[in-house]
Amino acid sequence: MTAREAPFISIVIPAYNAEKTLVETLSSVSNQSYDKLEILVVDDGSRDGTFELASDYGLT
C-alpha cells in the first residue's frame, strides 16, 4: 500500500428493532464523501422491519 492509497473501511451497524432509526443511519453513512467503504448491518433477530429495510438498501 502506498502513502496515497486510501484504506478500505468497514462500517458495522448493530441493529435490534431499529426500523425507526435505520433509514436515517443508512442515509447518513451512504452520503459520506469517502467511497472506499462497505456497510454491514448486523441484525440481532429483530421483530420489526429492520431486515426488510436493510434489504431495500441492498445490505443483505
UniProtKB/TrEMBL annotation:
| GO MF term set | glycosyltransferase activity
Give the keywords, sorted: Glycosyltransferase, Transferase
Q: Which domain of life is it from?
A: Bacteria
Q: Which Pfam families match?
A: Glycos_transf_2
Every Glycosyltransferase 2-like domain range = 10-57
**SUPFAM superfamilies recorded:** Nucleotide-diphospho-sugar transferases
Return the PANTHER family for the record.
POLY-BETA-1,6-N-ACETYL-D-GLUCOSAMINE SYNTHASE
What family does this chain come from, according to its entry?
Answer: Belongs to the glycosyltransferase 2 family.
Q: In its UniProt entry, what is this protein called? A: Glycosyltransferase
* Species whose genome carries this gene: Rhizobium leguminosarum
